[in-house]
Design brief:
Shape: elongated
Number of strands: 0
Length: 302
């Protein structure tokens, strides 16, 4: 039975609508929901992994273009479907504004003369503004001005391309200075790296086995040292009672060894320079606490 040309058009329109719903799915349609830009959230997400640049409509068009190549749809039909989807967005253009601000990290790396990867390793424990002030020829003010220029240029480009409205353009430009300042001054959390077992590093791991260090420093056998500890003495007490040795000398030796391990971990790329500084600041207190603990059980407590 033949089908009229008009009926074919109706079927095609219905099929295209169904295809759009199937291809986009719930996850892709979420891209069209109203969004509120959070510069801190955007960049913290980028520190872990970079989100795909394509929007839901970009992915849809790529799939539909493949159908055009197979002769299932025409280019005009694809354009009409994509336009209909974009027109149905609850807050059209909000996603484009969000992507513009999400590029601030990449623009900051360019300003500082760093790659994105290098910048990500430097951010934990500090802010972009602080990094700029410590970089020769750069400054927080210069970074903010560069980011503002980049955002304004991107907004103008989006407006000219019709992906955002004039009202959205004006609103984004008005809010940009505060968003950029918050972005530049945000101090990122100093996170300790994870071991293969997903365990955070602690300063005591760099301090190591103080019992073994004390035994070597004091020149005592394991049995003699263990007996003294069982008698309720600390490593510091034992060191002070040993000829030519002292508690302070033991603390100094263990501290030096721990700092050497921290420096090597930084050189090997296991921790950042800021993390190394933070760990070294904790070493003195950690070593003192371990050396002054009484009894064998406390020595091994971490």
């Amino acid at each position: 039975m033949s089908v009229s040309f008009r009926s074919k058009k109706v079927l095609l329109a219905a099929g295209a609508a169904a295809l759009t719903a199937v291809l986009l799915g719930g996850a892709s349609l979420a891209a069209f929901a109203p969004v509120t830009y959070d510069p801190v959230g955007e960049v913290e997400a980028q520190l872990g992994s970079v989100a795909p640049a394509n929007s839901g409509t970009d992915k849809l068009k790529a799939i539909l273009d493949a159908l055009v190549a197979k002769g299932v749809l025409t280019a005009a039909q694809v354009n009409a479907i994509v336009a209909a989807v974009r027109d149905a967005e609850p807050n059209r253009g909000a996603g484009e504004i969000k992507r513009i601000f999400a590029n601030l990290l990449e623009e900051s790396a360019k300003y500082l003369g760093l790659t994105n990867a290098d910048l990500k390793t430097k951010l934990p424990g500090t802010s972009l503004a602080a990094l700029a002030d410590k970089t020769t020829g750069k400054s927080r003010a210069g970074l903010v001005a560069d980011l503002q220029n980049a955002v304004n240029a991107a907004i103008d480009k989006a407006l000219a391309a019709g992906t955002i409205t004039k009202d959205q353009s004006d609103k984004a430009k008005a809010e940009a200075p505060a968003q950029i300042a918050k972005f530049a001054d945000h101090v990122y959390e100093l996170r300790t790296p994870k071991t293969p077992a997903a365990r955070a590093l602690k300063v005591t791991e760099f301090v190591g086995d103080v019992f073994a260090a004390g035994r070597d420093y004091l020149g005592l056998s394991q049995a003699d040292l263990a007996k003294a500890l069982r008698d309720g003495k600390s490593l510091g007490d034992i060191a002070n009672a040993t000829a030519g040795k002292s508690r302070d000398g033991l603390v100094a030796q263990i501290t030096t060894a721990a700092n050497t391990k921290i420096a090597k971990a930084m050189t090997d790329g296991k921790i950042t320079a800021d993390q190394a500084t933070a760990f070294k600041a904790q070493v003195g207190a950690a070593v003192t606490a371990l050396v002054d603990r009484k009894g064998p059980t406390a020595i091994f407590k971490r």
